[in-house]
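Two folds, back to back.
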Amino acid sequence: MIYGDDGKRKGYLARDWIWIIAGLILTWMSVEMAYAERGYIALGGEWLVLPLVLMAVEMVRDISVLIRYLFDMEGDDGQD
């Protein structure tokens, strides 16, 4: 396949579908508000809402993994 592994894409969609839908809804709302405020159609930062939502989700997951790892390491002083 040209664009990567289809299984990885399906796994990502299955795992993060709720965040994708939430990001799309927030993007739609922010685009409507920006267009109404401007009075004309233009491309702006409101189109970055979906990527920022997905980046925030990944960052929270990474931080939670890091915190769990650090707390697991806290009790392990190398002595069995």
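---
second:
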Amino acid sequence: MVNGISILGSTGSIGRQTVAAAKHLGVPVKAISVQSNIELAERQARELNTELVAVYDEDAAKALRRRLCDTNIRVAGGEAGLIEAAVIPSADCVVTAVSGAVGLKPTLAAIDTGRRIALANKETLVCAGTIVMARAAEKGAEIVPVDSEHSAIFQCLTGRERTELYRILLTGSGGPFRGKPVSELRDITPAQAVKHPNWSMGAKISVDSATMMNKGLEFIEAMYLFACTPDEIQVIIHPESIIHSMVELVDGTVIAQLGVPDMGLPIQLALTWPERGPSMSERLDFAALGKLTFEAPDLAKVPCLGLAMDCARRGGTATAILNAANEVAVALFLQEKIGFTQIYDCVSKALDSMEICSDPNLEEILDADRRARNFVREHFD
């Protein structure tokens, strides 16, 4: 088990559940980071007695300094503060629970220290998977995935040679609109899109699950995490969200990881691995489940998934453009500036309009990210 952790994105859904898991396990939280929610950040910092709070918004950081002036807790601001939280010496593990490409630089900084990365920020690998995984191998940094699907695959593959793997079976619930006619999707509201049938998540990832872009991002993430080609990954719709993913071995054996749909399980595992301990989550009741069902995704109905899978095959900056355009498009949808089906239009047009660099360095990836965001804002906002 790790001896101390830093939580990047401590006030989000994964961040709050990580705080709960750390308290349950008795793991000290040395640093936290937030975007701007200083009310909750102050409560967390005082309760956990952290050494550092990083606040991405500089004005909010100044306000939090005043609120914590009666303590010894330091407050850092901006991207530099986020990186400082990621590399704080007293933590041997950083939980990257921030949403979006903002997690890339802090994750790379933490990798450079050789500590464990409990990876919940899939955009880091979506944008720069080749660079991140190569850096982790060079620095001896252990990456333990926190996404339930990738945690499942990680567990299924542990102790096995890469040559034993035939393919990864990446499961997804299908989102809240599985079964709804395509003709009705144009009228979906943000309030409807954020109501996931099985998981309690933040607004952005809930919308991504509704469009199934999230499964596309997970497809790309799995490709880098487990050194697979796109042809070695198959997406399977599994509405009950009990099987979190499976691996098929070369002899036809399929190994699955099952559990209740509770992010507390993969979060705790990332902190205790390779050990395990009693969790706060419920136990599976197989008799109550009755049955588990599966179906193939309808890519005509969820074109964002197909678009992401195509970007995985194209490689280079295609995945960074996909991710950045989607982040802005989802924000515009949540602000009710575009419709639900226009999310796909935003991302597709950004990809069609921008040149793809086949073997980018980090600066070229970040430049593609900026240009994709600007394209969507200029053409759809």
